[in-house]
Amino acid sequence: MMRYNGQLILQEVLVEPTKQLITIGEETTPMDQLDVLPPVSGTIYGTLLNYKGELEALGSAIYESPYQQPPKAPILYIKPVNTINNHQATIPLPQEEDSLQIGAALAVVIGKKASKVSKKEVRDYILGYTVANDVSIPHSSVYRPAIKEKARDGFCPIGPWIVENEEIPNPDDLDITVHINGELKQQQTTRNLIRSVDELIAEVTSFMTLYEGDTLLIGVPENPPLARNGDVVKITIAGIGSLENQVVVTKQAVKENTI
């Protein structure tokens, strides 16, 4: 499923990533000729400290004030609607900043109202998967909501399409790469998650309801690469696709998307 030229396409879409061609029915179109919009419409939730290396990187600091122990429950935050951005759109770099952290994240799109879902039932509630870039201004604290750093306009490119749940038999075994200007900057895998996709959704829905169209980012790996003005960022998740954007210094917010 994908959204382009103002329409949500629900029929089968065939994608040739190497040739950047999209076939819908009998019509094949170069992807750069389509105005691809974000394929999601609900609330986007991010997850902190869900990669083993991310938690290990904190070292002894995780045992210091204010919490003095590793988290016992998922740490969530919201990427509000102003952050949602298109595939191939620009990511605004604030003039006062030198760089942005690139947050490669598997995005799980919810297919129906999910409340107190058991781990065994989770897949019945997943519509599908897409690619997200959980962009943030570099910061070190994980103890305070990083709203100023993570909730800027255009700080959550997502898409370009949703791959249906049935097409991804094991979301906990997907390779993730980040290329900046064609150079490999990060290589990770969802095999390194602390909470699997099923575990994470089961825990989250034990205390809050996820609705149809909501999206849960399962986490960002440790040591996120930095991108600077003019850099082209490409995040690829095996079996799902690639999300590409360019970082550009700008005074103005990105244009409002039709969601």
Q: Can you put this structure into words, describing what you see?
A:
- The structure is a single chain.
- The chain is mostly beta strands and 259 residues long.
- It has one domain (38-249): Fumarylacetoacetase-like, C-terminal domain (Fumarylacetoacetate hydrolase, domain 2), CATH 3.90.850.10.
- It has three helices and 20 strands.
- The chain has a seven-stranded mixed β-sheet with strand order 8-7-17-12-13-14-9, with no helix packed on it.
- Strand 1 (2-4) and strand 2 form a beta hairpin.
- The chain is globular.
- The protein starts with a strand and ends in a 10-residue tail after the last strand.
- The model has no long low-confidence stretch (mean pLDDT 88).
How much is the radius of gyration in Å?
A: 18 Å
Range of helix content: under 10%
Poorly predicted tracts of residues = none
CATH C-level class is Alpha Beta
Largest sheet: 7 strands, mixed
Q: Which topology does CATH recognise? A: Fumarylacetoacetate hydrolase, domain 2
**What structural class should be given to the helix and strand makeup?**
mainly beta
Q: What count of structural domains? A: 1
Morphology call: globular
Task: Please work out how many helical segments DSSP would assign.
Answer: 3
CATH superfamily: Fumarylacetoacetase-like, C-terminal domain
Organism: Cytobacillus stercorigallinarum
InterPro entries: FAH, Fumarylacetoacetase-like_C, Fumarylacetoacetase_C_sf, HPA_isomer/decarb_N
GO molecular function: hydrolase activity
Domain Fumarylacetoacetase-like C-terminal: 43-248
